[in-house]
Design brief:
CATH architecture of the largest domain: 3-Layer(aba) Sandwich
Strand order of the largest sheet: 2-1-3-8-7-6
Largest sheet: 6 strands, mixed
Shape: globular
Number of domains: 3
CATH superfamily of the largest domain: MoaB/Mog-like domain
Strand content: 25-35%
Radius of gyration: 27 Å
Distance between the termini: 50 Å
Number of strands: 17
CATH class of the largest domain: Alpha Beta
Oligomer: single chain
Low-confidence stretches: none
Mean pLDDT: 94
Length: 413
């Protein structure tokens, strides 16, 4: 069974909002054994929507549509579907009562515009909206399944989880799709590919390896598709056991873990505390650390010491060290890390100082030069990196690399 996703809305096409719905839906469908053939975005235009539906039904068995179900005039999806399926609108009294109840509970007037949300195509199965007012609609037409849902993410997700995916699995026979993902840091995609080429060439039929690079990180995803789930799980386990020795030094985690989650788990398990002193990253390392729920258990705080004066006056980096070596140097980040660990009274600290760009580089210290230091109860180390010319990428790569260096030091304790 193949599925296509169509998102409707001018706001997506002009970049006013980011289409997060499609990514979430694709993942949820894949986990259910439903393969997504294509994802499209179209404007709030009747002809465009109809053309997209015509094309989608030539490629897919199931067409999932989000957006354009609101009560205002620019929301035309429902009216377009009425014309597309050559049907009429009828009042659904269950929806009417649900919507009215929502407005009454909020002490808001229930207008004629709101009432029209209870009007649905006569040929659809209504999908109740437990999170909002616009109902979803399920159509069995042209030998295909069409499902229209609101574009509001939490409304769509509730419909997908409680109704759409269960009904699709009931109506179609879906295969088992199993993923195993490895989080990689410290080796480029092309070098990794060469390193595991022989292993990859021996993958059995029905198994596929995907390289998923992002700034500072790389994920390897092994996917198996088939009918016999226990057999697939055993095969994936054996394949991963054969792969791991080839890349052990670059593996930092598995599946959907992030670097900050991995570091947080290690700190929690050992009952240790962390602090940071940041220059070129401007607090981004602390931001990533504190994005993890429960990080207050192991993260004490951060100092953003951007200027020479703050490095000297707040962290206590010696003036002569800054003048002799410059802020972007081994000597300065070692002093920053040591001072941060002492001031915050933590077991570990991270310090970073670099030239993020696009300006500020010299012959000796080009743009992208970054020094990272890690201070532990046993030692303080510093390493130099050259990350390139892009400011945003440099900040992200500094963060990911710093967290990985910390991970390595924690594991040594």
């Amino acid at each position: 069974m193949l599925c296509e996703i169509i998102t409707i809305g001018d706001e997506i096409l002009i970049g006013q909002i980011v289409d997060t719905n499609s990514a979430w839906m694709a993942q949820a469908l894949n986990n259910a054994g439903i393969m997504v053939k294509q994802i499209s975005s179209v404007s709030d235009n009747k002809d465009h929507i109809m053309k997209a539906l015509d094309e989608a039904r030539t490629r897919a068995d199931v067409i999932l549509i989000t957006g354009g179900l609101g009560p205002t005039k620019d929301d035309i999806t429902k009216a377009t579907l009425v014309d597309y399926f050559q049907t009429t609108l009828v009042r659904n009294w269950d929806v009417y009562r649900d919507v009215k109840k929502i407005f009454e509970s909020r002490e808001l007037p229930y207008t004629a515009i709101n009432e029209r949300q209870a009007d649905v195509p006569a040929n659809c199965v209504v999908i109740g909206n437990t999170k909002g007012t616009a109902p979803g609609m399920w159509f069995n037409e042209f030998g295909k399944v069409f499902v229209s849902m609101p574009g509001v993410p939490y409304e769509m997700k509730a419909m997908m989880e409680t109704f759409v995916i269960p009904k699709l699995k009931e109506q179609f026979k879906t295969p088992n799709i199993i993923h195993q993902t490895i989080l990689i840091q410290g080796i480029g995609e092309s070098f990794l590919s060469e390193r595991i080429a022989d292993w990859e060439d021996r993958l059995p039929e029905g198994f596929k390896l995907a390289y998923l690079p992002s700034t500072g990180m790389l994920r390897l995803r092994l996917t198996a598709i088939g009918e016999d789930k226990p057999k697939l799980e055993q095969q994936i386990k054996e394949l991963m056991n054969a792969l791991t020795p080839l890349i052990t030094q670059y593996i930092v985690g598995y599946n959907d873990e992030t670097m900050e989650q991995i570091v947080g788990r290690l700190l929690s398990d050992k009952g240790r505390k962390l602090s940071t002193a940041e220059s070129c990253t401007g607090g981004y390392i602390a931001h990533r650390i504190t994005s993890v729920p429960g990080s207050s258990a192991y993260f004490e705080g951060s100092l953003i010491t951007y200027s020479y004066e703050i490095k000297e006056n707040i962290l206590g980096v010696k003036k002569e060290t800054l003048e002799q070596y410059g802020a972007v140097s081994e000597q300065v980040v070692l002093a920053m890390a040591t001072a941060a660990r002492a001031q915050f009274k933590t077991d570990y600290s991270i310090a970073a100082s670099g030239i993020a760009g696009p300006g500020g580089g010299t012959n000796d210290k080009p743009v992208g030069t970054v020094w990272i230091a890690i201070s532990t109860p046993h030692r303080t180390i510093a390493k130099r990196f050259l990350f390139g010319n892009d400011r945003e990428r440099n900040i992200i790569r500094t963060c990911i690399t710093a967290l990985n260096l910390l991970r390595q030091e924690i594991l040594k304790d």
